[in-house]
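Ticket #4471: structure output looks truncated?

Reporter: J.K.
Steps to reproduce: submitted the chain below (450 residues) through the standard prediction queue, then opened the result file.
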Amino acid sequence: MDYEAILKDIKPTLEEKRHIDEVSSNVMSFLQKECDSRNIDANVTLVGSVSKNTALKGKSDIDIFIAFPLNTDKKYLKEKGLELAQLCCDEFGSEAQRHFASHPYITTEIEDCEVDIVPCYAIENGSELKSAVDRTILHTRYVKENLAESQQDEVLLLKRFMAMTGTYGSEFKVGGFAGYLCELLIINYGSFEDTLKSAINWKYGEVIDLMDYGTSQLFKDPLIVIDPTDKNRNVGAALRLDKMAEFIQSARNYIFGDNKKDYFYPLKRDLNQEELLNEFKLRNSDLIAFRFDIPDMPLDTLHPQLRKTCEALERKLNSEEFNVFKADYWSDEIIKCVILLEMASSRLNDVKVNKGPKVFITKACENFAAKYGRENCYIEGDFLVHMQKREFSKAEDLISHIFTKENIGLIKVGKNLKKNLINTFEFIDVEEIDLEFLDDFLNPGQYIVR
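Returned output as attached by the reporter:
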């Protein structure tokens, strides 16, 4: 296939690239000048996809690291790193947003470019690692030394393909492939198409070890890609099994399908609320939707807690004999979250069987019979059981019961969400839910095949 037209659409334009290079250079020059004038022993360096020419059009975020010597006190590193970043924001008239990874760092917007300014330690190999961010300089150096210039476009094709099939991005919300992982795949397999042709034959626990470190036995992940800069790290550790599987099937669909160009562009969908709601009716499922306010917290903390809450509620409903066909959540990541439950069964009869001990265990059977009344007990298989009234015969009633101060402990919800769940939980109509989320809920496979 001829990829030139696609690359024209996904590669940064010369104008965009010149602008990014100019902003990067100006910010780095300022920071280094401040380091030198203040006798701060640190070197400013550009890392990430911009420095490797593997950034997609419109995704050219600038990552600038301030690397301190290994013997630098951690408190000093944090203080001076933030001080320098704040000075930079003041110089360029931008607003600083503080985030925290291994060290606190600043994100800001300078001349329409998103810029991360991150303090780190200047390490030469993985054995000197003091924090997770320290590896980034090594990653950048390795890719620049091992990714041929002709392969930079191959990385762009792979990233774009993954982005359009919903498998790109290592943040928890996605659980997909990181940019560095994409670059290593191209270095290993050579090209975009060869990566896909190899991926369709991947097995669980697939190993890629570019440096032949032989440390794959340390990991039990679906995809094991030994970090060339650190033999004790799996670059694929954040990749969820479902996202690896989606990529494999996307690759198969692409290699053996006809509409190849469509895989590099967003889905064409004309969403109609009435049609979507009618699809749910045709499935003859019961729908339960509720919303609650979310606290102000980092997205990589928020999404794990939202997923945990959604999955815990699903397990609880199933354990009480309600049948959840599918559950998922949506959030605007600012104010609210919505959880949608598609129920195969949301109403039950008023009685249930309470299973006791096996009939061969005399003492346990006597205690069970004494508790529930001998006349009420009977045998199912070899278990002593009795019939009792259900506490909840409607799923909505159980959910309302759970999200109260007294009963929130019945499921394991995200710790930062408890207060908001108790105070702001409310059922809503499906008509109030984001249409793209409803479409994704109904048609989960539409991203991996065109």
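Triage note (M.O.): checked the attachment and the full token line is present. The chain is about 40% helix and 20% strand.
Status: closed, working as intended.
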